[in-house]
Design goal:
alpha/beta, 5-stranded mixed β-sheet, 8 helices, 14 strands
């Protein structure tokens, strides 16, 4: 993606190289607003990319626009890797959810954002971005929705490169699926993901993500239903449930499967005993 890339009037993307899981290689930052500007995602930990971000941000400020802050969708390293350096270097305050701030003890968050809060960016055309707390991928994950423009800053809820990992340590599969349904109900024109280009038909992608996750979950239950007495360990389950995928993806599949199992056990559909899983009877 070229940088900076104008998405539409008052919205520009700036992709930087980050330590993000493949197939993505970059994380998108965004500049929202035509006069008051909010920068999204202080993502990169790399010196050369941080210098490019600083030059971009200072160019915005020197053009007569007012940068009001830097917005962080969540705490993962490919989103917050530059937060400490960039906020200090640029002197702009950092905005995030309180649960994100708790996971970044060395980063100073100046403003805690809450679900339903409206961020008004004044300008020739005023933008009003509603804060949406969308946990599931990460506890403090936040999206921004501009209803008049039909735009969503999606963070890691969806991607146009690959899919989004739900890690059982940070994530919650049930919450994630619930929040995809919430985003689906917004009637969006475009979703602006952290990874990949703008998504022009986001509802179709939300539907695909839900279908894909529930399909994989059904496969997990099917495999467990055919397991030997005593059930499967997580590694045994991954080997059988992902026998249609190359072994190279199994480490990530193991995390996703573990997240599904947490959900299934909580729902009473699967039992766990001594590290083995079986279908509830």
């Amino acid at each position: 993606m070229e940088r900076p890339l104008e998405i539409t009037a008052g919205i520009t993307a700036f992709a930087t190289r980050t330590p993000t899981p493949p197939p993505a290689t970059h994380t998108n930052s965004y500049a929202l607003g035509a006069r008051d500007v909010l920068l999204v995602e202080p993502a990169t930990p790399y010196d050369d990319e941080q210098r490019a971000f600083v030059e971009w941000a200072r160019g915005i400020a020197s053009s007569g626009r007012n940068v009001v802050g830097i917005f962080l969708t969540h705490h993962h390293p490919d989103h917050a890797g530059g937060a400490r350096f960039l906020t200090r270097e640029l002197g702009f305050p950092l905005w995030a959810h309180r649960l994100t701030a708790e996971r970044l003890p060395k980063v100073e968050v100046s403003r805690f954002l809450e679900d339903g809060e409206v961020l008004t960016l004044a300008g020739p055309t005023t933008q009003r971005w509603t804060v949406l707390h969308t946990p599931g991928h990460a506890p403090g994950h936040i999206c921004l929705h501009e209803p008049e423009l039909g735009q969503l800053v999606a963070g890691d809820m969806v991607a146009s490169e690959g899919t989004v990992l739900i890690d059982p340590v940070d994530g919650d599969m049930a919450l994630y699926l619930e929040q995809l349904g919430r985003l689906r109900a917004l009637g969006l024109r475009t979703a602006l993901p952290a990874h990949g280009g703008p998504i022009g038909e986001p509802d179709a992608l939300f539907d695909y993500y839900v279908h894909h996750r529930l399909g994989r979950e059904a496969r997990i239950v099917e495999v467990l239903a055919g397991a030997a007495a005593g059930g499967d360990t997580l590694d045994e389950l991954v080997a059988r449930a992902y026998d249609d995928k190359p072994r190279s993806v199994w480490p990530l599949a193991k995390l996703s499967t573990a997240a599904h199992l947490v959900k299934l056990v909580r729902e009473g559909r699967v039992h766990e005993h001594d590290g083995r899983y079986s279908v509830a009877v």
